[in-house]
Amino acid sequence: MTTRTTTRHGFSFLRIAIALQTLTIFLQAVSSGLLMTSSYGETLHSVGARVMYGASMLYVLAAVLAWKPGGGSPRPVLHASGFLILASVQVAVGIAHVPSVHLPLGVLMFGLSVLALARR
Question: What pTM was estimated for this model as a whole?
Answer without folding.
Answer: 0.85
